[in-house]
Design a protein that fits this description.
This protein has a domain of 213 residues. Helices cover 32% and strands 20% of the residues. It contains 10 helices and 15 strands. Helix 2 packs parallel to helix 6 and helix 6 packs across helix 7.
């Protein structure tokens, strides 16, 4: 009799679970198969983080433009290759000269991080030779929009970035320009662009009181001059590095960079982290080398290998499937404690790019990365249900003509259904 009761309970439990999943699948399907979704290309995959059961899928093996969902792959890469503290420089000495080369570290003198690790280190040396030829890539990623050059979200990439590779203007009192090196290159009048295309001549509207960030044109000469001003000493550029073994100088905690990258969707940090990861593989800084290494050595089990061309997702050349996104999110869920992992992601109704969307009831229930380009909006991450389950999902919307807020409202209805009923 006891065995019969236990068997009955187990049967009822599994039948109930199956019934719930069928109801969820049917309800989402009813929403997605008709109406506004007919006017866009939609891909969805929702999977129970523990049981791996699929709650819903649609076009989950099709390729989509991911926009900043690409940063999920960048986060995975960084967590595999970069140590707990960001390598800030590589260096070696020969006779009385300190030779240094960049690692791609984006935090040096950055307006948010304000990291002075390399400045403090270099001030203790008199003869410094700066080697910049280890950067073997382009200043812009493949497929980036050429006319975005003067917008905050499109800084140039290089091997030894300083100040986030942007000029920061604060106009809330006395005008502040960072780096001060450019204080005489800022013209206070409204212009159609914020910087001249081929030189570091900047414009700002003096009636605007918000902080403004404008990408700088970066080359080896400017890097040397900015470092000289920060150190108050002369440096020289060298075309070769000694063959002696190099040491690494470590800077700020890596998690602080990952959190900033994910929470506000910082393109510059994402791009540079692939170069930092590259510096752990060899002395050559190259984004493609890093991406190839990760795909071949950590993600060879992807059933739909992506076309992955940059770290940030600025490029429309990127193509990923919802299944690939869920695959990487699942690996992260398995490898990283949830408190740390969820802390990297924007939280619905609380912080970052999700501050105004997907509020809790009452507790936050969405930890996910947004990805937006014109006519595209994607969201991939983790959903916590009221019953205590975790759902890993990727929801990709491409080629819609409606306002993105309408797309998000439809997504929110689906997420709340999962939260409340699974």
């Amino acid at each position: 009799m006891k065995k019969f009761v236990v068997l009955l309970l187990i049967t009822t439990l599994f039948t109930g679970c199956s019934s719930t999943k069928r109801q969820i699948f049917k309800k989402i399907g009813t929403q997605v198969e008709t109406g506004a979704y007919d006017k866009q290309f939609t891909g969805i995959l929702m999977v129970d983080a523990v049981t791996k059961d699929t709650l819903y899928k649609k076009n989950s093996t099709k390729y989509f433009t991911p926009a900043s969902n690409t940063k999920i792959f960048t986060l995975f890469t960084a967590l595999q290759l970069i140590p707990d503290s960001i390598p800030a420089l590589k260096y070696t000495t020969q006779n009385d000269t300190l030779y240094i080369e960049g690692t791609g570290d984006p935090s040096a003198l950055h307006p948010f991080f304000k990291d002075s690790t390399i400045v403090h280190f270099l001030r203790s040396h008199d003869n410094i030779a700066l080697y910049l030829n280890n950067f073997k890539d382009e200043k812009y990623g493949p497929g980036w929009s050429w006319d975005d050059y003067h917008y905050y979200y499109s800084p140039e990439r290089n091997g030894l970035p300083l100040y986030g590779n942007v000029l920061t203007i604060e106009n809330n009192g006395p005008l502040k320009v960072l780096p001060e090196y450019f204080k005489d290159s800022v013209l206070p009048f409204k212009h159609t662009v914020q910087r001249e295309p081929e030189k570091n001549l900047f414009y700002f509207n003096p009636s605007e009181k918000d902080t403004l960030e404008i990408p700088m044109m970066v080359d080896s000469s400017l890097t040397r001059k900015l470092l000289e001003k920060a150190l108050d000493k002369k440096l020289r550029i060298t075309l070769t590095m000694p063959t002696t073994e190099k040491k690494a100088l470590y800077g700020i905690p890596a998690d602080s960079v990952y959190k900033r990258m994910m929470e506000v969707s910082d393109n510059f940090l994402a791009e540079q982290l692939l170069f930092v990861a590259s510096s752990t593989l060899s002395d050559t800084l190259n984004s493609a080398k890093t991406r190839k290494f990760i795909i071949e050595n950590f993600l060879s089990d992807l059933r739909q290998p992506p076309r992955w061309v940059d770290g940030s997702g600025l490029s429309r050349y990127n193509l990923f499937t919802p299944e690939s996104m869920v695959h990487v999110l699942s690996k992260l869920y398995t490898e990283i404690p949830t408190e740390r992992l969820f802390g990297f992601f924007p939280t619905g109704g609380i912080a970052g790019t999700l501050e105004n969307w997907y509020p809790g009831d009452p507790e936050p229930y969405i930890h996910a990365k947004t990805g937006s380009l014109s006519n595209n909006h994607c969201l991939s991450g983790y959903l916590l249900t009221k019953s205590g389950k975790t759902v890993i999902f990727s929801f990709m919307n491409n080629h819609f003509m409606a306002n993105s807020s309408e797309v998000k409202k439809r997504m929110q209805t689906i997420f709340e259904n999962i939260r409340d009923n699974y």
